[in-house]
Amino acid sequence: MSDINLKAAVEAVLFATGTAIEEGRLMAALGTEEEPVNKKDMKEAIEALKEDYESEDRGIRIIELDGKYQLCTKNEYYEVLGRIVNMPKKHTLTDVLLETLSIVAYKQPVTRAEIEKIRGVSCSHAVNKLVEYNLICEVGRLDAPGHPILFGTTDDFLRSFGISSMDELPDISPDKIEDFRKQAEAEAGVEVPT
């Protein structure tokens, strides 16, 4: 497959599916047994498309979500889209939801009980809302009595926060962790061992 055809084929697949597709799946779909697509050619085709879409006269772009690629509208055109289609209601993330989401993002995979232990309160409502908003999902079951559900973040989480992988989450500094520990001790009236 020539570079031009490969680029066009990648564009066609991403446009038609409308979802994030793993690079390996793209390579398998676009190559044949006799003529497989190699990783270097795939990367070059995707980078060439990204460069094409960066132009001001283009309304779409390619985003990368944890090794997956998706064709989507540029942010500056959402308002225009809202006038022609029924845009889904934006979800409001309360402090409770953000706190719960942060725990899942940094500790994943994590069970509801682990989240509740960290937060110190029940989190059923928050977890259910985050699942409803498709920011977290079930990623498996813990091999323990009762086989509790393990939760992790979704591609929508990455998309919503404008990051391409979990590696882009900011690191929490040791000073900040110490501040959190002191706040927890003050609120609970107990000393937390370090």
Notable characteristics:
three-stranded antiparallel beta sheet; 194 residues; elongated; alpha+beta; 9 helices; single chain
Largest sheet: 3 strands, antiparallel
Largest sheet, spatial ordering of strands: 1-3-2
Mean pLDDT rating: 85
Structural class: alpha+beta
What is the number of helices? Answer: 9
- SSE string, helices as H and strands as E: HEHHEEHHEHHEEHH
Tally of DSSP β-strands: 6
What is the overall silhouette? elongated
List the quaternary state of the chains. Answer: single chain
Beta-strand residue fraction: 5-15%
Calculate Rg over CA atoms: 21 Å
Q: How far do the termini sit from each other?
A: 59 Å
- Which percent range fits the helix content? 40-55%
* Unreliable stretches covering 5 or more consecutive residues: none
How would you characterize the overall build of this protein?
This protein has 9 helices and 6 strands, in the order H-E-H-H-E-E-H-H-E-H-H-E-E-H-H. By secondary structure, the protein is of the alpha+beta class. The strands form 2 sheets. It has a 3-stranded antiparallel sheet with strand order 1-3-2. It has a 3-stranded antiparallel sheet with strand order 4-6-5. The model has no long low-confidence stretch (mean pLDDT 85).
Summarize the structure.
The chain contains nine helices and six strands. The chain is an alpha+beta fold. The radius of gyration is 21 Å and the shape is elongated.
Blueprint of the fold:
Blueprint: H1 3-17, E1 21-22, H2 23-30, H3 39-53, E2 60-65, E3 68-73, H4 78-84, H5 95-107, E4 110-111, H6 112-119, H7 124-132, E5 136-141, E6 149-153, H8 155-161, H9 174-188
Helix pairs in contact: 1-3, 5-7
